[in-house]
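Researcher: I'd like a candidate sequence for this fold, 365 residues long. If you have to choose between options at a position, lean toward the conservative one.
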């Protein structure tokens, strides 16, 4: 064992193959001089322990830290655990998963990705936009009329979206829908209430400008919203039905506006320099698994969205004032225009989305 530990320290300077040769030959020469039969009996006796040490010390050499704001117990957190299980199968890579507020808001996660403190993340389009803004084109209000439209466009344009992320130094492994976004409130009277917008992204900035005549705008990080709802700083929020439940916001909700505004989406990204260090076979298997698992989770989310919407609608007030809803719809049209014009990369990708939608809708006529 002493020889092995010394050889391990010495062997760091050499390539793995050369190192094993040196360890084996030097150990063999030393022990054969002592006692040949003792040498072979020792090898047989400790073979399993020796091989286990080799695996732990040499082959589990890469640790990938993956973070997400998804709370434990949610569909998205379970997805991260399945990714961990799959990538750790061949014992070449260790995945450490951080959930909830462990790594801060998505802006904090992206900052830690950039400096290498984190290596991978499950991000909503809020965080993904900070890496490459094209993703925001999917979240523009009043673009998709159904889940099916989103699925078809997403599938067609995913290779192009992934290519753009790769140019920024990241591997986009999946892109999936979280759900249609609605406005929910803890107030019986939604209109004029304190509306949360997620600070620091293009969509939130457009919402703040165009909705300020309908609501009082309160910009906050998402990790502060639960407390803000509890204390009354915020009355009203944007969210999907299932995410509202997963983040524990639903317990405050008393009313909602039944007009879906846009489909919110998310994805899994990893730093390209870290991804390339993972063994090729693990990458190939992992990439296929992550994409398929994301689509499976998405399918489950669609069912949960419908189920949660049915349950929540039974206990909360549905706001159906036609004049106010028309005013909101006009504001959403302005938000749409403002987001498209905010960034040339968003505008460029929106053109691709619009082209695919026209083709889809023309086939249905």
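Model: Candidate sequence:
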């Amino acid at each position: 064992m002493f020889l092995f530990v010394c050889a391990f320290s010495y062997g760091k300077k050499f390539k793995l193959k050369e190192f094993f040769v040196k360890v084996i030959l030097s150990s063999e020469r030393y022990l054969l001089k002592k006692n040949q039969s003792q040498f072979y009996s020792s090898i047989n006796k400790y073979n399993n322990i020796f091989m286990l040490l080799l695996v732990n010390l040499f082959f589990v050499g890469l640790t990938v830290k993956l973070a997400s704001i998804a709370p434990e117990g949610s569909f998205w957190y379970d997805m991260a655990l399945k990714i961990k299980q799959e990538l750790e199968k061949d014992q070449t890579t260790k995945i450490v998963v951080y959930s909830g507020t462990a790594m801060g808001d998505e802006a904090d996660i992206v900052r830690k990705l950039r400096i290498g403190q984190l290596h991978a993340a499950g991000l909503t389009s809020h965080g993904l936009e900070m890496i490459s803004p094209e993703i925001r084109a999917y979240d523009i209000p009043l673009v998709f009329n159904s889940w099916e439209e989103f699925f078809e466009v997403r599938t067609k344009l995913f290779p192009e979206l992934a290519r753009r992320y790769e140019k920024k130094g990241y591997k986009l492994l999946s892109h999936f829908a979280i759900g249609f976004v609605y406005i929910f409130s803890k107030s019986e009277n939604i209109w004029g209430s304190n509306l949360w917008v997620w600070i620091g992204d293009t969509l939130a900035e457009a919402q703040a400008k165009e909705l300020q005549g309908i609501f009082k705008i309160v910009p906050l990080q998402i990790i502060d919203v639960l407390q803000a709802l509890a204390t009354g700083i915020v009355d009203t929020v944007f969210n999907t039905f299932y995410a509202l439940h997963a983040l524990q916001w639903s317990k405050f909700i008393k009313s909602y506006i039944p007009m879906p505004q846009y489909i919110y989406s998310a994805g899994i990204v990893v730093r390209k320099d870290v991804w390339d260090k993972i063994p090729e076979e693990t990458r190939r298997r992992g990439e296929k698994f992550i994409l398929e698992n994301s689509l499976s989770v998405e399918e489950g989310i669609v069912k949960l969205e419908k189920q949660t919407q049915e349950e929540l609608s039974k206990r909360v007030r549905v706001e159906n004032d036609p004049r106010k809803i028309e005013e909101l719809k006009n504001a959403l049209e302005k938000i749409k225009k403002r987001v498209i014009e905010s960034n040339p990369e968003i505008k460029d990708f929106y053109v691709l989305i619009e082209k695919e939608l026209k083709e889809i809708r023309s086939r249905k006529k």
